[in-house]
Design brief:
Radius of gyration: 29 Å
Structural class: alpha+beta
Number of helices: 11
Helix content: 10-25%
Number of strands: 18
Shape: elongated
Domain Grh/CP2 DB: 1-229
Strand content: 25-35%
CATH class of the largest domain: Mainly Beta
InterPro entries: CP2 (IPR007604), GRHL1/CP2_C (IPR057520), SAM/pointed_sf (IPR013761), SAM_3 (IPR041418), TF_CP2-like (IPR040167)
Pfam family, one: SAM_3
Keywords: DNA-binding, Nucleus, Transcription, Transcription regulation
Number of domains: 3
Distance between the termini: 70 Å
Order of helices and strands: EEEHHEEEEEEHHEHHHHHEEEEHEEHEE
Protein name: Transcription factor CP2-like protein 1
C-alpha cells in the first residue's frame, strides 16, 4: 500500500512510488487472490519482503553492490521491520547476512499489516561524477508461501511487487510535490498521457524471486536425488534444487551462480562467513556428509633411517620404493597441512613450528598459505624432520 504514486509516469509504464529513508510505511496484506488457495494445510503463511534492484544491469551485480553498501554502512540494514507498529504478524525475522530481506508469519483469515523501513537511498548506488545524478529505482517484492506436509514454508502462493525510489528524509515529499506541479502546468492533452497520482500503491503480481523457487502445488516432494547427494557434476540448476530440497531455500539466491563442484570445494569457514554460524555449519555438514572430491590431493612419504624399511615397498623388479600416503586438503593452509601430517604419523601438531620446502640449489623456503594454494594437484613430497633448540622443523623435498 505505501504512499502516493508519482503523477509523472506515463500510462504504459509501471507506477513509481517515492519513499523517505528510514520512515515506516505500511503494507497491508489484503491480496484477495489468497482466497483462491482453499487447500492451505496450515493456519499461517509466510511472507518474505525484499528490497531489490529494478534495473537488470544492477541485478547482475547485486551481491557486489550490497557488499559495498555493507562496507560503507557497518551495522546498518537496508530493510528493517517496525515491529511495534505492525499488526497481526508473528515470528518477524531479519537475517543478519541478508540486509535487504525480512520475513514473518501471518493468518490470511485475519487483517495483517507490516510496517517496513528502507534505510538506503537511491543515489547510493549511482556512480558519482558531477553531482545531481538520478537515483536508481528499487523494487519492493513480497513472496508468500504456505507450509508443505513437512511443515516447511515452501509452497509458493503469490508474489507481488512495486517500483520505488528512496530519498533522504522529507525528500520524497518534495519530489512528489515537484512532480505534481510539473504535470499541472501541462495542457490537458499532455496530462492524458500520464497516470493519475493514487493515494496508495497497489503491488502487482509478478514472478517469484529466484531465492525462493516456486514449488509445484501438485507435488510437495522434490526429486529424491536432490535430497541425497550433491555431486561435483551437478549443474547450477541441480544445485538450486538440491538446496531447496534440503531446506536451504533461503540461500538459493546467494548461491545462484554456484555449481555442485563450487559448493563442494568450499570450506567450513567459507560457509560460516557467508551464511552465519548456525546455518553455515548446518549447510557444511549437509554438503560434506559424503566422500567428496577434495580441493587438493598431495602424497607424502616419511624419510626413515636405513634400517627402518617398513615405509618402503618392494616393486616387481625387486627394488625398494618409498610408500606414500595421500593427504586430502580442503582449506589449503599451512595449518591444515601440518595437522594432516601430524595425524598421519601420530605426532602432536603443536610441535611442528615451521614447515620448509626444498627449493633450487637445495635452499629451504618457508611454506606459506599462498604456497600451499599453489601446490599442483597430486604432487608428492619426502618428509624429514629436524629438532632445533626452540622448535621442530618439517622439511618437504
Amino acid at each position: 500500500c505505501f504512499s502516493s504514486t508519482s503523477p509523472a509516469v506515463k500510462l504504459q509504464d509501471e507506477t513509481l512510488t517515492y519513499l523517505n529513508q528510514g520512515q515506516s510505511y505500511e503494507i497491508r496484506m489484503l491480496n484477495r487472490k489468497l482466497v483462491e488457495y482453499t487447500d492451505i494445510s496450515s493456519k499461517y503463511i509466510k511472507s518474505i519482503v525484499r528490497v531489490v534492484f529494478h534495473d537488470r544491469r544492477l541485478q547482475y551485480t547485486e551481491h557486489q553492490q550490497l557488499e559495498g553498501w555493507r562496507w560503507n554502512r557497518p551495522g546498518d540494514r537496508i530493510l528493517d521491520i517496525d515491529i511495534p507498529l505492525s499488526v497481526g504478524i508473528m515470528e518477524p525475522r531479519a537475517h543478519p547476512l541478508q540486509l535487504n530481506t525480512i520475513e514473518f508469519l501471518w493468518d490470511p483469515d485475519k487483517n495483517a499489516s507490516v510496517f517496513i523501513q528502507v534505510n538506503c537511498i537511491s543515489t547510493e548506488f549511482t556512480p558519482r561524477k558531477h553531482g545531481g545524478e538520478k537515483g536508481v529505482p528499487f523494487r519492493i517484492q513480497i513472496d508468500t508461501f504456505s507450509a508443505g506436509e513437512h511443515g516447511e514454508y515452501t509452497e509458493h502462493m503469490l508474489s507481488a511487487s512495486c517500483q520505488v525510489k528512496v530519498f533522504k528524509p522529507k525528500g520524497a515529499d518534495r519530489k512528489l510535490k515537484t512532480d505534481r506541479e510539473k504535470i499541472e502546468k501541462k495542457s490537458p492533452q499532455y496530462r492524458e498521457k500520464y497516470q493519475p497520482s493514487y493515494k496508495t500503491t497497489v503491488l502487482t503480481e509478478c514472478s517469484p524471486w529466484p531465492e525462493a523457487p516456486s514449488v509445484s502445488r501438485t507435488s510437495n516432494t522434490p526429486s529424491p536425488g536432490y535430497h541425497i547427494h550433491l555431486l561435483p557434476s551437478s549443474s547450477m540448476q541441480d544445485t538450486q534444487q538440491w538446496l531447496h530440497g534440503n531446506r536451504f531455500s533461503s540461500f538459493c539466491r546467494l548461491f545462484s551462480g554456484f555449481s555442485g563442484s563450487d559448493l563442494l570445494k568450499m570450506s567450513r569457514e567459507d560457509f560460516i562467513q557467508i551464511c552465519g554460524p548456525a546455518d553455515g555449519i548446518r549447510l557444511f555438514n549437509a554438503i560434506k556428509g559424503r566422500c567428496i572430491q577434495p580441493r587438493l590431493t598431495v602424497y607424502v612419504s616419511q624419510l626413515q633411517n636405513r634400517n627402518q624399511l617398513h615405509t618402503k615397498a618392494v616393486g616387481e623388479d625387486g627394488r625398494r620404493r618409498h610408500m606414500y600416503h595421500a593427504l586430502y586438503l580442503e582449506d589449503l593452509t599451512v595449518l591444515e597441512l601440518t595437522e594432516k601430517i601430524a595425524n598421519l604419523y601420530n605426532a602432536p601438531s603443536q610441535q611442528i613450528r615451521r614447515v620448509y620446502r626444498q627449493g633450487p640449489t637445495g635452499i629451504h623456503i618457508l611454506v606459506s598459505d599462498e604456497m600451499v594454494q599453489n601446490f599442483t594437484e597430486e604432487c608428492s613430497f619426502i618428509i624429514s624432520t629436524m629438532k632445533g633448540n626452540f622448535m621442530d622443523m618439517l622439511f618437504l623435498s
